[in-house]
Amino acid sequence: KSLKNKNDERSTNPPLSTSPCPPSWDNGGSLSPKIPDWGFEVLQQSKRTLVATRTDKKSLSHLSPFFVEKVIQQFGEVNEIVRCRNGSILIEAKNTTQAEKLQNSKVTVGDCEINVALSTTAHNTCKAIIRDEDMVHWDQQELLEGLADQGVIAIHNVKSRPGSCSDKWTVTPTFIITFNRPTPPRHLKIGWLSIPTKEYVPEPIRCFQCQRYNHFRASCKNTAVCSRCAEPEHRPGPCKQDYKCINCGGSHS
């Protein structure tokens, strides 16, 4: 399967929000008595995405693509090879056996030695959301150690503040869990509790010039608009007009 479609397999749960605006965290917590679908075999079978880099730190994409392809295919036909911006390439092996052969072999292209290692990017890791009001009282380090056998490698408690001018952060019952696998389990077993996971939707990039998403102000060529009322940038000073979102038209900034 294509590396570009990895996110399609992450979860059957609906996203937290389908709005063009960033998702908001609610305060709900839930428990489930169902036996979780761990899929531990998936954890091993998913380790098929590798990253290849030159040991001399130069760009691997500068080498002949025909030669690189022939060297990789000595280990059998792979699912896909993707060029990265940093000069490395991602290799998706057909199975874990092929991936292990690539990792354990000395790969050379001409005079260049190539290092092939398991990718630690989002192709081999994923994040999920869990919510439980009691988790804020539990020791985070103990949680991390206790969930290691389920593939958990990081736990982040989401905090919020009442307003952009406030410097006080409030702990919420929402946690972002990072797994060392491309898809999260449907449930996370914490002791005798079984807590369902939800799809993690990362906060989008927002431009603070035009207030739209997926680009930064430094590269924005759009007209500047007010972040409060969504009108073209007006006189300096605090805006006192009603809130309006330029993306969805809602009564918020």
Task: Give a verbal description of the structure.
By secondary structure, the protein is of the alpha+beta class. The protein has three domains: 44-118, RRM (RNA recognition motif) domain (Alpha-Beta Plaits, 2-Layer Sandwich); 126-199; 204-252, no CATH class. It is 12% helix and 23% strand. The chain has four helices and eleven strands; from the N terminus they run αβαββαβββαβββββ. A five-stranded antiparallel β-sheet has the order 2-3-1-5-4. The chain is flat. 16% of the residues are buried.
- Intertermini distance: 40 Å
Classified in CATH, the superfamily of the largest domain is RRM (RNA recognition motif) domain
Sequence of secondary-structure elements: HEHEEHEEEHEEEEE
In round numbers, the mean pLDDT is: 76
Q: Spatial order of the strands in the main sheet?
A: 2-3-1-5-4
**Beta-strand content estimate:** 15-25%
The total domain count is: 3
The first-level CATH class name of the largest domain: Alpha Beta
Radius of gyration from the CA trace? 23 Å
**Poorly predicted sequence stretches spanning 5 or more consecutive residues:** 1-45
Number of helical segments?
Answer: 4
What is the CATH third-level topology name of the largest domain?
Answer: Alpha-Beta Plaits
Any idea what the shape is? flat
Q: Major β-sheet, in short?
A: 5 strands, antiparallel
